[in-house]
Amino acid sequence: MSILPKKNELGFFEIRLESIGGLGANLAGKMLAEAGVVGAGLNGVSFSSYGSEKKGSPVKAHIRFCDIDTNIRDTSPVERPHVVGIFHEALSKTVNVSSGIYEDSTVLVNSTKEPAELKDKLRIVGGTIAVIDATGISLEEKNRANMAMLGALFRLCPFLDPQIMKDVIRKSLEKKYPQAVDPALRTFDRGFNEVKFQSYELPEGVSMPSFVRMDTPVLGYATQPMGGMVTNPGNSILKDLSISRSGMMPHYYEDKCIHCAACDNVCPDFCFVWEERPDKKGRPQMFLEGIDYQYCKGCLKCVAACPTEALSGERETDGYGETHRIAHRFDLAVSNG
After folding, report:
1. pTM to 2 decimal places
2. CA 46 to CA 167: how far, in whole Å?
3. Do 131 and 202 form a contact (C-beta atoms < 8 A)?
C-alpha cells in the first residue's frame, strides 16, 4: 500500500480539478481515483460538480484518497486541496481556481507560461506551481488534453504508479477505440516528462489568504435587491464567453474575405461585426469588420463554412483576443455611458 505524503484532519489527501466541459476533467478524475484504489491500495472516491451540462461550462472534479483502514463518508466538494489541476488557464478570469490551497499545495496549470508568470495571476503566495502545455501536446499527438494533465498529475503525486495509469488508459480505450490507445499513452508520457514546476516559500510576515467557503451565494436574504431583481441576466452583454475556448480560435484575414456572411450564418453566438458601407458601384452593402472575441467560444464552425480561407483555426495565444477584438456597436455604447 502506498503512503500518502499529506493528510488533512480527516485523514484525506484531496485533489480538485478546475476545467470546462469538453476537456475531460470528469473522466480524468475517475481514472485518477481508479489508479489510486486499484494500483496504490488506497481508499478513493471521485465525483464532479457542474452547472449546465454543455461544452465550455465550468466543471470541477473532486478526488479524495485515504489509507485503506479509513472510511470515506464525505462526498462534499474539495475545498482545501493539496493538489489543484487547472485544465484551462483562462478560468482564472471568472473563477478563483486556487481557492482554499495550503501554503504547501501544488497548483498544476495547462499553460505555455513559466511558473513565475502565473504566480501573481493566480494569486498564489506560497506552494508549488507546475506548468504543462497540455493543449499543445494534445494537438501534436492528436489526442485530448486530459491525458497530458493526467501525466503531469502523476509526476506531482509520487504515491501513484504511472504504469497502473497506463493500464487503466489501455483498459478504458482498447475495446471501443483501439486506435486511440497509442496516442493517449504518448500524450500521458509527455505530460509526465515535460511538466515544469517551481516552489515558493511563504514570505516572512505574509500569511495565506483567509479561507472563504466556495460556492457561497453573493446574494442572500440580507443582500439581495428589492423584489429579488436579477441584476446579471443570462443574456447580458457583460458576459465573457472567452473562457469557453479550449485552445483554438478563428483568425480573420480581411484581404481574403468576400463578405458572403457564410460565417455569420453558422456562428451560434453572433460574434461577427458588420458595417454598412458603399461598394465599388456606390450601392450599400454589409462588410465584415471582424470578430468580437468576447463572445467567441472557439467552436470553429465559421472556419469550416468559409469558402475563401478568410478564416483559419489557430492556437490561441495570450492577449490575441483582446488586441484583435472588434467590439459590437452596442458594447461601445454601453462602455461610453
Report:
1. 0.83
2. 19
3. no
Q: What's the pLDDT at 29?
A: 93
Per 3-state DSSP, the chain is made up of helix, strand and coil in percentages (nearest 5) of 35, 20, 45
Q: 61-94 burial, b if ≥16 CB within 10 A, otherwise e?
A: bbbbbbbeeeeeeeeebbebbbbbbbbbbbbbee
Cβ atoms of 67 and 95 within 8 Å: the answer is no
Q: Residue 290 — left, alpha, or beta (φ > 0 → left; ψ -120 to 50 → alpha)?
A: left
Is residue 256 domain-shared with residue 324, that is, in the same domain? yes
Q: Which helix (H) or strand (E) holds 283?
A: none
pLDDT at 236: 56
**What is the C-alpha separation between 43 and 54, in angstroms, rounded?**
31
Determine contact, residues 11/44, Cβ cutoff 8 Å: no
27 in the same domain as 123: yes
- DSSP run (H or E) holding 175: none
Q: State whether 179 and 324 are in the same domain.
A: no
Domain identity same for 43 and 132? yes
Dist CA 17 CA 87 (whole Å): 7
Q: Which of 45-49, 54-58, 148-152 has the lowest mean pLDDT?
A: 54-58
CA angle at 273 for the pair 271 and 274, rounded to the nearest 5°: 145
The total of structural domains in the chain comes to 2
pLDDT digits (tens, 9 = 90+) for 21-31: 888 899 999 99
Between helices 145-156 and 134-141, what is the axis angle to 10°? Answer: 130
Alpha helix stretches (DSSP H) within the chain? 25-34, 115-121, 134-141, 145-156, 162-173, 181-194, 262-266, 301-305, 320-323, 329-335
**Among 129, 130, 170, residue whose Cα is nearest residue 31:** 170
**CB neighbours (10 Å) of residue 244?**
23
Helix (H, G, I), strand (E, B) or coil at 58: strand
Say if CB 186 and CB 151 are below 8 A apart. no
